[in-house]
Design brief:
By secondary structure, this protein is of the alpha+beta class. The protein has helices at about 25-40, 50-65, 70-75, 105-115, 120-145, 155-160, 225-230, 285-295, 305-310; strands at about 10-15, 40-45, 85, 95-100, 160-170, 180-185, 190-195, 200-205, 210, 220-225, 240-245, 250-260, 265, 285. The longest helix is centred in the middle third of the chain and has 28 residues, at about 120-145. The protein is globular, with a radius of gyration of 19 Å. The chain binds 2-oxoglutaric acid (AKG) and fe (ii) ion. Fe (ii) ion binds near residues 184, 186, 191 and 242. One of its GO terms (molecular function) is dioxygenase activity.
């Protein structure tokens, strides 16, 4: 019998209510999060929300949105790639972005663009979902800082965080065998992904093996480390290389919450020492996005662009 270990995506259980910062279970979870990110750049968090009933609402409003005519969805324009409407091009899902989605008026603006006569239910559901996911993101950042012994330092980072919500649909057209998202690394600090029961998200391990994310419950989120987390952590946490391959007949819906930072981002000085010499110069997150978008390198999705952008 083979004794080879099959790599498994780490799972962390967190609850909004029953979790006292500083308690032993909190500190143990902080360390689990750090270890998961250092080892896999990715983990599953089983959270206390959303309820099953709210989960159904989320998926139902997504179906309603993607059923709108293309000429309505394409009204969602944005100068930044992936922030507005993403058409159905080969290798990518259909997507719609809502920048600053934690703000109710931004959700309202998007809703009015899609439904000029209004759609209060859509607006409320999407805004409430973003609230849940952004609170979870804040808790995770706080725990990550704490696990490195950087107790109070998470506040400036959280205060300068902006959220982009991307709504995604992977639907197979006639004749297509699968639909997906080409392998890439996110240009975020962290990304939180939530989905319907149709799987497809895969991550590549350090050993080069692709493993499928199979969420264990409707309160599971995938947590993905992005390029900015890699620079902040001085390469202790690598950016996750991931892709989506959906071969199911059923449509896959996913919601991605992407975090971007204002101002200058610097590597945490406590994470620089003789064993871990400084890898990245301070940089602006917005300039990183611009650098990536304006690069003509056909392999830019597959390489560590941080080294070229701001490597020491
Ligand atoms: O659909 C997913 O689960 C992943 C999407 C993704 O990787 C992205 O939007 O950057
Ligand atoms: Fe991604």
């Amino acid at each position: 019998m083979g004794s080879e270990k099959v790599p498994k995506i780490p799972v962390v259980h967190l609850s909004k209510e029953n979790f006292e910062p500083g308690s032993s279970s909190w500190l143990a979870a902080c360390n689990d999060i750090r270890r998961a990110l250092e080892e896999y750049s990715f983990f599953e968090v089983v959270y206390s929300e959303p309820s099953m009933e709210f989960y159904r609402e989320i998926i139902s409003v997504l179906e309603e949105l993607f059923n709108l005519p293309d000429e309505t969805k394409t009204r969602n324009t944005h100068p930044k790639i992936g922030h507005g409407y993403m058409g159905k091009i080969s290798g990518f899902p259909e997507g719609l972005g809502i920048e600053y989605a934690t703000k109710k008026d931004e959700c309202q603006k998007f809703t009015s663009l899609m439904w000029p006569d209004g759609n209060e239910r859509f607006c409320d559901v999407i805004h409430s979902y973003t609230k849940i996911a952004s609170e979870l993101n804040q808790m995770l950042v706080r725990m990550l800082f704490e696990s490195y012994g950087l107790k109070k330092d998470h506040e400036p980072l959280l205060n300068s965080t902006n959220y982009l919500l991307r709504l995604l649909k992977y639907g197979r057209s006639l004749g297509e065998t699968n639909v997906g998202f080409k392998a890439h690394m996110d240009k975020t600090f962290l990304t939180l992904l939530y989905q319907n029961p149709v799987n497809g998200l895969e991550i590549r391990t350090k050993e080069g093996e692709w493993i499928t994310y199979e969420p264990s419950s409707p309160t599971s989120f995938a947590v993905i480390a992005g390029d900015v987390c890699m620079a902040w952590s001085n390469d202790r946490i690598k950016s996750s290389y991931h892709r989506v391959v959906v071969s199911s007949e059923e449509d896959r819906y996913a919601l991605g919450l992407f975090t971007f930072l204002d101002g200058v981002v610097q590597t945490a000085e406590e994470l620089v020492d003789d064993e871990h010499p400084l890898q990245y110069k301070p940089f602006e997150h917005q300039k990183l996005l611009h650098f990536y978008e304006s690069s003509n390198d056909p392999d830019k999705r597959d390489i560590n662009i941080m080294k070229t952008f701001c490597g020491v």
